[in-house]
Here is the input.
Amino acid sequence: MDGEFPDDSDGRVLKMMAERGLDMSRPVKFEFSIHVEDEENAKIVLEGLKAAGVGDAKEIIFDEGELEDGEEMTKENEEFWPSWTVYVYQSMVPGYERVIEFQRTLAEICKEHGKPDGWTVELN
Here is the structure.
């Protein structure tokens, strides 16, 4: 299945990566995000990830939601600020099944303390 890309958000991004010439047979650095409600839950999720040995690296980021000079508040900013996010970095060969399985693992670890909220890839 890793050579095929289903028509969902993960599949579309992986397909776009392949179409743009990314070598899909070599590991790349993925950044998975987990949305959490507050610092306490962020610490619980981070500890769970560490205990499970998941990810090459992990960190908690708090975005207090400061506007840049001249920037106006938007509905999206109001909805998502302030926010706590736990990031998990994992080097792996891009593939649909691998991405889905990693997200399932994250969901199982964070359960009621947070929710996986997408991923990006660091392209050089």
